[in-house]
C-alpha cells in the first residue's frame, strides 16, 4: 500500500490482532465485527436479553446515554436465567464492557468506516475461493482458480462502470437542482443513497439561524421535536465547508438529511465539500492506471506511489500562495531539465523498452507444487447464532425425554433376555439328565 496506513480495520475479537493493531497502526480506526459479537451474545446471554444487547450495539448516542442503558441492561440480566449461568454470562459482559469502544455505536459514531459493520465482504470472497479448492490441486491450478474467481468480480465491475457512464438516474423528488447535480457526480448505487437522504429532508424543519463573521449555524429539528441537530456552513456563496453534528458524512461518506435541509433552503446544487471522491464516476481516473488492463504494469505502480507521496504535500501547498508558487516553479524547472536530458541523450524513444526489461533482470526462482498432505475432511455446516440447537434423542426409541442409558425399551429387552436365558439353561439340564442319562444324573433326586 506504498507505506500508507489504512483508515479503518474490522476484525473479530482476537486479542493478538487487537494488540498488534494498537501498536503498529495507532492512527487507524479499529472496530469488532458485529456478526461475531451477535453470535457470542446468543451463546452467552438469555434469549430474552438478546434484543436489548443488539440495541446497545447499533443505537447511536452519547457515551453517557450508553452508560445509563448499560446499567439498566445489567439490572435486567440479574433477574433473568438461572443463577449458575448468570455468573458465566456476567464474566462475558464484563469483558465486553471493557472493550465497549470497539463495538458500541455510541463510541464509534465519529469513526471512518463508510457504513461497514462486519467483515462479511471478505468472508464471502474467502468462501468462494475455498468452494472449489481440492487438496490434490497443483499450485498452477490453485492460481488459475484464483484468477477465475477474480474475473467474475471484474466482469461485474466493468458492466456497472459501463451502465454508470452511459446512463443518468431519474430524479423523483421536487428538488430537481440538487438531485440532478447529485446524479451527475455520484455513481448510481451511491446516488440512490443520497436520494433517500433528500427524501428524508422533508421530515425536518429549520428552527433557528445563527450568523457569525466566519460561519452560519442552522438549527435543524425533527417535526416531532425529539431530535435537534446543528449544521455549520462556512460561506453560503461558495459552500467551502458544510458539516453536521450527527457526523454521518464523516463516518459513511454520504451527506445526511440535515445537510440536505440547508441545501434545499439555499436552492443550490450539490457542493464539492459534500461529495467524497471515492463515490464519484471519475474516482478511477485519479489512480493513473489503465482500467482496460487489469494487470498493473511497473509504470502504473511507480505512478501510483509518486501520486500518493505528492498528494499530501500539494494539498498543504495549495493553502498558501507562497508555497504554491514555490512548488510550481520547482516542478516547471524539473520538467524543463528532463526535456533537455531526453533531447541530448535520446533516451525518450527507448523508455518503454527499458521498462519492459527491468523485470527480466530479476533472478529466476523455481517454484514447485507443495507436498500433498492428508485433509481434515469436509467442513461442517456453520449454524446460525440464532438457530436453536437440536434436542438430544434416544438412539433406540428416538424419544427426547431420555437417552439410551435410561431407555425403558432397553430395560424391558434386558429383563426378557435374562428370564429366557435362565429358562433355556433349566431346560438343557433337565433334557440332558432325563433323556441322556449320565453318571452324575444318579445324584439328582426324582
TrEMBL record:
Residues forming the SWIM-type domain are: 229-267
Note one Pfam family from the annotation.
MULE
Q: Offer a single GO CC term for the protein.
A: nucleus
What are the record keywords, sorted?
Answer: Metal-binding, Nucleus, Zinc, Zinc-finger
A GO BP entry: regulation of DNA-templated transcription
The main place the protein resides is nucleus
Where is the chain membrane-spanning?
A: none
Q: Which residues form the signal peptide?
A: none
Where does the record place it? Nucleus
Q: Which domain of life is it from?
A: Eukaryota
SMART domains (alphabetical): ZnF_PMZ
Q: Name one GO molecular function term.
A: zinc ion binding
Q: Which family does it belong to?
A: Belongs to the FHY3/FAR1 family.
Purpose of the protein: Putative transcription activator involved in regulating light control of development.
* Listed name of the protein: Protein FAR1-RELATED SEQUENCE
Q: Which organism is it from?
A: Urochloa decumbens
